[in-house]
Amino acid sequence: MGSDRVTLKIPRPLYERLRCVIEGTGFRSVNEFVVHVLRDLVAEAEESSPALTPEEIRIIRERLRKLGYL
Amino acid sequence: MHKVLVIGLDCFDPGLVEEFLPELPVLGRLIGAGEFHRLQSVDPPTTVPAWMCAFTGKDPGELGVYGFRNRVDHSYEGLHIVTSETFRAPTVWDELGRMGLRSIVVGVPGTYPPRPLRGLLVSGFLTPSTDHDYTFPRSLKFRIERVVGKYLVDVRNFRTEDKGHIIEEVYRMTERRFKLMAALLSEEGWDLATFVEMGPDRLHHALWAHHDRAHPKHDPQSPYVDAIRDYYRYVDERIGELLELVPDSTQVIVMSDHGIQAMYGGIAVNEWLIRGGYLGLKEYPEEPTPMRELIERGLVDWSQTVAWGEGGYYGRIFLNVRGREPQGTVPPGEYEAVRRELAEGLSAITDERGEPLGTRVLFPEEIYREVRGIPPDLIVYFGDLRWRSIGSVGWGEIHRHENDTGPDDANHAPYGVFIAFPPLAGDPPTLVDIHDLILNYFR
Question: Do the interacting molecules here have an ipTM over 0.95?
Answer without folding.
Answer: no
